[in-house]
Design a protein that fits this description.
heterodimer; A: 922 residues; mainly alpha; 40 helices; 68% helix; disordered N terminus; B: 577 residues; 31 helices; 69% helix; elongated
């Protein structure tokens, strides 16, 4: 009923607990009855005690073991030596036939508890201390039983019947079920098939029917539905999981959907008999949430949805299920389902579970915390690429959380807005953002989006720090670093005393923020265990259970008396929560990006490598894919395409399931690059178009991809010698970048414009562009790009005539250290060629005296360009070499160089439709 | 219609057969329809007429077109032969079993029939088992209510029943009743497609089983599934279609069907009640009230559908009639969800919301899936300003039936109350999507767009426009439209809407502040447009009102006269005191 949350975790008596009680009786027989089974050794007795301890500790777990599982565990712990326990257990259980038997059983149980006054210990007599763990457990069981109404006793009795029967029947058909589990459990997804699962439960019923059948012989009991029926069944099955149709793929498919499968077994209908507590299911859900976040799209949408639906049936008051359904549909880009489930979740839960929930100190929030719903809705819109709605909703969230003075939510909301503003190009926030949370707008000063973002970031950081939301602080630091990376800080107010401010980005700030964000890990190192929730623990136990039991057998065989291994599942799995690891990981990714921008290739590579090796387990698959992308791009630039494509293949297999993949983008980028180099312009254009299509059509969304696509478009046009078109495209791109404040991209575009003018022979027009690009690079500390701009500048000077050769040469030589240290193959080759050209056009330079000065760089360049298969530049290199050789009079070498020149020109003009397997990928 | 007699004889046989099989609801329904057929004047006897609505005022009042004599062209009914009973004389076992069944000792009845092979016996055995399972399930739901409120109790007979019935069906030794039960079992198990085919098979071979039809109807939630059914053209199909149309909110189609059916079943209470339901959905409260008054006169102990009557009384604020109704149903059967709901409505009308919630809760305890109780309880919570509880109640209503536009509307309202208008918009959108013909919904949505936080005035105007086109009873839309247009600086549009609003008010003979506002605006507007004659008309009308506007009107008039009489360039404002 409305608003009533049931108390979590009632202790209720189940068949499994009854078996544990029986085992307890064996462990500590009551005084009256002499021990039925004298233990072979004290060690064995202790082992039983330890085993019972573990069992009782785990009795709140999400899934109680069935009888055969319990028997299996007993067998493993005690070896084959002691089957008497098991016989005793099963006979006792199956002897419980009437309610009265149960009553007697629990009265008997009371006998094995030592009274508080029984101080005198007899020899070898084990008396359970009522205050001990086992004693407590027993007392709780007895109490729970005494609280049961008669109906409850009846239910317990039927459940015990099912519990025993299942064990017996599954002993017989154990192998077949095992086999079927692995091969055909996909079919089990369809609800229609679930009927078969229920057979276990209804064994009794079927027996009855069988009896009836014998009475009336006419009826045959094979389930052969008429054909029409079967067709309908197929109808039902098909939407559940389309993979069932491909019979040969079942093997790989089943491994692919493993996690849901695992879940399904837990929630198959007949296990519904055993009550589980709130915490346990919450723990399961928590785990699934993490898994979804980490590796969302590898979940099969329908299969997981089916589990969740079943779970919802079992526990209709548990609203977290709706949240998982939301996440599931979010991962599969199902907007409507996601919206529906999100709203439903918050309608039911009123925001009182979930993120960093702080129990309200004052009575103010007794009315639910619906502002969290707004926050989530905003983030969902953001995820689906609806920036406008997202901003609207988040603004409302800010307003509501201010009204209800929910500081935590406000801090998160501000962080979300920052994230939104930095990710999505918004040309003006006028009229969208309320003025209430920015102190400056209230004075009437209109701020640019960037300034507003900065103010917001600062405010959000401060708020998070004062509220001690550690994760939020860390992620705010990351956002700050991101901001510092690409934005120049200007004074916020344009009047007043002007601080002498350099209009440059500040790499040290970035570094500082990054370091601050990784402080988080040390904080979590100290307070390790407090963060894990109860539920997560109990599922962790479940996960570990499978492993240690195997090793328990080993230790048994070694003869060592201790079986600690079997109980190591009581140990906490990991002290650092996954979300923290994820944050730290992303700080490394950001570091890699920063170094990439600043132009240090090795450092960028190292950081990406660190991420790929240390954080892939904890991170979401899209982040991991990003790290791989960075590494592969590095390979392509420094080692050529062959290696890059080999690496790409590996990455593709690894991230097969990631939707909207960065890997796909990377592939298109590489293909485009190579097509340009080889001179396959048609292909280049095609690839470029494909890239453009991947971006969302909403303005402001996927800016990165859009810039990239149109940049590549311009370059393709340039390569096709369509200068004016290329210039036009570049120009409009510049306008867009300017509008959305993408300064770093501006530098690149300006450089491209300079290049266009250089190629079209308008060196004078190109010069200002190159200079502008240079100044952009300077203020954003883009060192490598600056070197490249310097090179272009030198080339421009050179093309103005031989009297500028000296100036060009000095420019190139100034940039050479940077280029040789950090530049890729293409850039280096270009620098070499330009240097050689400078020498050649310098009238005061004599070739015959200093031939090495020219020939060395040229041969270097030719080698590198051949790796890249950059035919055009390679031809130029060989042409230059031929000239030099000609001047030197080395005719043989000249002929060789000329031949190479010819070869490259030929391949450039007649692009072979060669063997390339990657073409037909598209 | 000459089929009246055949209908009657068909129904008579069917009632016998249905009650033989203990399908009581269906036989009750059939009997009601039997009595609903108009008697031939030939065998009118005075004692007969007493049970009939001889002087039915409703029929006179609302029978718009006389369909009685004109059956729809081209409709030819398939005459389904009345089923032959396989064993004319019931066996002794059967008689015993049936009496056990009548005493609700289902398992005992099934046990008696364990070796019987006649179709009738097999059906009764299966049906008894099914009911026994259902009974046990209901009990378990209460017994097993765990900490998570789980309700996974299942009817444990379903599996065995399904096996047996599917085998029977395969052998071809199943009768329509068996098919009905099979369909029921399949539906319960969730195999809806199969259930639908089986039920269609059942109703095609035995159309008089209303239970089967209503199961089938609950499986048809869209018009497409409804159209894809392959049904024989029996007159029972019309009943089915009418009720199915109602369920998928095609109210006028449903109404037409029922009115057509009234040609034959002129005195059927059932049809009357259904017509009332359709009228209620079309918001024709006056007619609904009349129909229910008539119904109660003929059938004073009726509880079914009376909750709807109470809703109408509530809407018309007839508290004494409502209390009378509540008292009556309370005396008839106090533990019916409908009765509790009626009492809840009464308390709500009296402003005693806590008590009202208590009765709605009781109704829900009796029937967890009682849709309107959830929604009404949500309304009560809204009144009590307990928004989270309201949200919860509404949401439950939606989960029971996602097409309940009232609950969506309520959710929107609740969120708007919490100061989250943008969030509320989604819910309003849902509700207008489901019920685009209700002006109140459009007005609420417009109001939401208009809030200070959103100020999305263009959207608000669009909503108001929809509302204004929909015969907006409270006449809010036109006024708001005019105001908004004025705010957005479009004086012409504003004048247009003020004028329309004025016309409306004149037609309905209402006066009030809105009237004054409209007159004042129009007067000033026409004056600035230099259309003095019109302006003068409005000004003189304003003079009839008291208050500051009267003075303004006077000064306006004065200003205009002076302008007209030779000071053309002078601005009026300088003259007004």
């Amino acid at each position: 009923m409305a608003g009533i949350v049931k108390p979590p975790g009632e202790f209720s008596i189940t068949p499994h607990k009854v078996s544990v009680c029986i085992l307890l009786q064996i462990y500590a027989p009551s005084v009256q009855i002499s021990s039925p089974f004298p233990f072979a050794s004290v060690a064995q007795h202790n082992r039983l005690g330890l085993f019972l301890l573990a069992l009782t500790k785990s009795c709140d777990d999400i899934l109680e073991p069935k009888l055969d599982e319990l028997i299996g565990q007993l067998r493993e712990v005690f070896g084959v030596l002691n089957p008497r326990f098991i016989d005793h257990l099963t006979t006792r259980l199956s002897a419980l036939l009437s309610p009265d038997d149960l009553f007697n059983f629990f009265t008997e149980m009371r006998g094995i508890l030592g009274g508080p006054e029984s101080g005198a210990l007899e020899d070898e007599q084990v008396i359970l201390d009522p205050a001990s763990h086992l004693g407590m457990f027993l007392r709780r069981c007895i109490l729970a039983f005494n609280l049961l109404a008669f109906e409850g006793v009846c239910h317990l009795l039927t459940n015990i019947g099912v519990y025993c029967k299942e064990a017996l029947s599954s002993c017989a058909s154990y192998e077949t079920t095992c086999f079927e589990d692995s091969s055909s459990n996909l079919e089990a997804f369809s609800e229609y098939e679930n009927m078969d699962l229920e057979n276990f439960v209804f064994k009794k019923v079927t027996e009855e029917i069988e009896a009836r059948k014998r009475a009336s012989e006419r009826v045959s009991f094979h389930l052969h539905a008429p054909k029409a029926l079967f067709d309908l069944v197929e109808d039902i099955e098909a939407p559940a999981d389309p993979k069932t149709k491909h019979g040969d793929k079942v093997g790989e498919a089943s491994s692919y959907v493993h996690p849901p499968n695992y879940g399904l077994r837990e929630f198959e209908p007949n296990s519904g008999i055993f009550l589980r507590t709130n915490w346990q299911i919450q723990g399961y859900l928590q785990e699934q949430t993490d898994a979804l976040e980490k590796n969302g799209s590898s979940f099969s949408l329908n299969a997981f949805e089916l589990i969740l639906r079943q779970l919802h049936k079992l526990a209709p008051e548990l609203h977290r299920v709706h949240f998982l359904r939301y996440l599931n549909s979010l991962c599969h880009d199902d907007y409507f389902a996601a919206l529906e489930n999100l709203l439903r979740y918050f309608d039911y839960s009123a925001g009182t579970e979930g993120i960093d929930f702080v129990p309200p100190a004052s009575g103010s929030s007794s009315f639910g915390r619906y502002e969290i719903a707004l926050l989530f809705l905003g983030m969902m819109h953001f995820q689906f690429g609806h920036p406008k709605q997202a901003l609207e909703v988040l603004t409302e969230a800010v307003r509501v959380s201010q009204q209800l003075s929910d500081d935590t939510c406000l801090a998160y909301t501000l962080a979300a807005i920052c994230n939104l503003l930095s990710e999505i190009g918004v040309s003006s926030t006028a009229g969208i953002l309320g003025s209430s949370f920015s102190p400056l707008t209230s004075i009437g000063i209109s701020l640019s989006v960037q300034q507003q973002l900065f103010v917001l970031l600062r405010g959000s950081l401060k708020r998070a720090e004062s509220l001690k939301l550690k994760r939020l602080v860390a992620s705010n630091h990351l956002a700050m670093a991101k901001f510092d990376l690409t934005h120049v800080q200007r004074p916020l107010v344009s009047f007043g005393p002007k601080a002498s401010m350099k209009l440059r980005t500040c790499p040290t700030n970035v570094c500082k923020e990054l370091r601050l964000s990784s402080h988080l890990i040390s904080e979590f190192g100290f307070e390790s265990s407090t963060m894990t929730t109860d539920g997560a623990f109990s599922t962790a136990w479940l996960k570990n259970l499978q492993k240690p039991l195997g090793s328990a057998i080993l230790s048994q065989e070694n003869g060592s008396g201790s079986c600690e291994n079997a109980f190591q599942f009581c140990v906490q799995p990991s002290s650092i929560p996954g979300s923290v690891l994820q944050l730290i990981g992303s700080s490394y990714l950001l570091r890699a990006t920063a170094w990439e921008l600043y132009g240090s290739a090795p450092l960028a590579r190292i950081n990406a490598l660190v991420y790929a090796t240390c954080f892939t387990d904890a991170s979401s698959s899209s982040d991991a894919a990003l790290a791989y992308v960075k590494l592969i791009q590095h390979l392509a630039v420094f080692r050529g395409y062959k290696e890059a494509f080999a690496a790409l293949k590996i990455a593709e297999e690894k991230f097969l399931s990631v939707s909207k993949s960065r890997i796909l983008i990377l592939k298109l980028q590489l293909l485009h690059e190579r097509a340009l180099h080889r001179g396959h312009l048609k292909l280049a254009q095609q690839v470029c178009d494909e890239l453009g299509v991947l971006a969302s059509s909403v303005t402001g969304v996927d800016m990165e991809l859009k810039t990239e696509a149109s940049l590549r478009h311009a370059r393709t046009l340039l390569a096709a010698n369509q200068y004016s078109e290329a210039a036009a495209v570049a120009h409009s791109l510049f306008c867009m970048c300017y509008k959305f404040n993408l300064q770093v991209e501006n530098a690149t575009v300006l450089l491209l414009l300079a290049e266009v003018h250089k190629r079209s022979g308008n060196a004078v027009l190109g010069l200002p562009y190159a200079l502008a690009s240079l100044s952009f690079c300077q203020s954003f500390n883009l060192d490598l790009l600056k070197a490249s701009a310097t090179l272009t500048l030198a080339e421009l000077w050179l093309s103005l005539g031989s009297n500028h050769a000296k100036r060009a040469l000095s420019l190139i030589q100034g940039a050479l250290p940077m280029i040789l240290g950090h530049g890729g193959l293409e850039l280096r080759a270009r620098a070499y060629i330009a240097e050689a050209k400078c020498y050649l056009s310098d009238p005061s330079f004599s070739v015959s005296e200093n031939s090495e000065v020219i020939l060395d760089p040229l041969s270097q360049a030719s080698a590198e360009l051949q790796v890249l298969e950059y035919h055009e530049l390679a031809a130029e290199t060989f042409y230059l070499m031929a000239i030099v050789f000609h001047k030197l009079g080395q005719l043989e070498e000249r002929e060789e160089a000329a031949n190479s020149f010819k070869k490259h020109m030929m391949t450039l003009e007649n692009p072979l439709d060669d063997e390339d397997p990657l073409f037909n990928v598209l | 219609m000459n089929s009246k007699e055949s209908c009657r004889s068909e129904l008579r046989i069917a009632i016998r057969q249905l009650s033989d099989r203990c399908l009581y609801t269906a036989s009750k329904w059939a009997a009601e329809q039997l009595m609903g057929i108009e008697q031939d004047p030939a065998n009118f006897t005075p004692s007969n007429t007493r049970f009939q609505w001889g002087s039915s005022s409703i029929r006179r009042r609302f029978r718009t077109n006389e369909i009685t004599s004109t059956p729809i062209a081209g409709v030819s009914y398939v005459s389904t032969p009345v089923m032959e009973e396989d064993d004319a004389v019931d066996g002794d076992f059967y008689l015993l079993a049936k009496s056990y069944f009548d005493c609700r000792e289902y398992r005992r009845a099934a046990h008696v029939l364990r070796d019987q092979t006649g179709k009738k016996s097999v059906f009764l055995r299966c049906y008894a088992l099914y009911l026994a399972g259902e009974k046990r399930k209901e009990e378990e739901v209460i017994e097993l209510e765990g900490p998570l409120g789980k309700s996974d109790s299942v009817n444990r007979e379903l599996v065995s029943l399904e096996r047996e019935l599917s085998t029977l069906r395969k052998n071809g030794s199943i009768d329509p009743f068996g098919l009905y039960l099979y369909g029921l079992v399949l539906k319960e198990k969730g195999s809806e497609n199969v259930a639908r085919t089986v039920l269609v098979e059942s109703v095609n071979s035995y159309p008089w089983n209303w239970n089967a039809w209503s199961e089938l109807q609950s499986l048809c939630t869209t018009i497409d599934t409804l159209n894809s059914l392959n049904l024989n053209n029996h007159w029972m199909k019309d009943f089915f279609l009418a009720s199915a149309y109602q369920e998928i909110r095609m109210h006028s189609e449903s109404l037409a069907k029922y009115e057509y059916l009234q040609g034959t079943f002129g005195y059927s209470n059932y049809i009357q009640a259904q017509i009332a339901k359709a009228q209620y959905s079309l918001r024709e409260f006056q007619q609904v009230e009349t129909i229910f008054e008539e119904l109660l006169r003929n059938d004073p102990y009726r509880v079914e559908d009376m909750d709807m009557y109470s809703n109408v009384l509530y809407a018309n604020e007839c508290s004494s009639a409502l209390s009378y109704l509540a008292h009556r149903v309370f005396m008839t059967d106090k533990y019916r969800p409908e009765s509790c709901c009626i009492i809840g409505n009464y308390y709500s009308l009296k402003g005693q919301h806590e008590k009202s919630v208590m009765y709605f809760r009781r109704a829900l305890k009796l029937n967890k899936n009682y849709l309107s109780a959830w929604t009404l309880m949500g309304h009560e919570y809204i009144e009590m300003k307990n928004t989270p509880a309201a949200v919860d109640a509404y949401r439950r209503a939606i989960d029971i039936n996602p097409c309940d536009y009232r609950a969506w509307y309520g959710l929107g309202q609740a969120y708007e109350m919490m100061g989250m208008p943008f969030y509320a918009l989604h819910y309003f959108r849902k509700s207008v999507f489901l019920q685009p013909n209700d002006s109140r919904l459009w007005i609420s949505m417009a109001h939401c767009y208009e809030t200070d936080q959103l100020r999305m005035l263009e959207e608000a105007i669009k909503c108001y426009r929809r509302a204004a086109n929909l015969n907006d009873r409270e006449a809010i839309a036109l006024h708001q439209l005019a105001k908004l247009q004025y705010e957005l600086g479009r004086p012409e549009e504003a004048a247009f809407y003020y004028k329309k609003d004025l016309e409306r008010m004149e037609a309905e003979e209402r006066e009030g502040p809105n009237m004054v506002e409209a007159l004042l605006y129009l007067a000033t507007y026409y004056k600035t447009q230099k259309r003095f004659e019109e302006a003068e008309v409005y000004c003189t009308r304003l003079l009839d009102f008291t208050g500051p506007e009267k003075e303004t009107a006077k000064s306006l008039l004065r200003g205009m006269r002076t302008t007209q009489s030779g000071f053309p360039s002078m601005d009026v404002e300088h003259f007004s005191p």
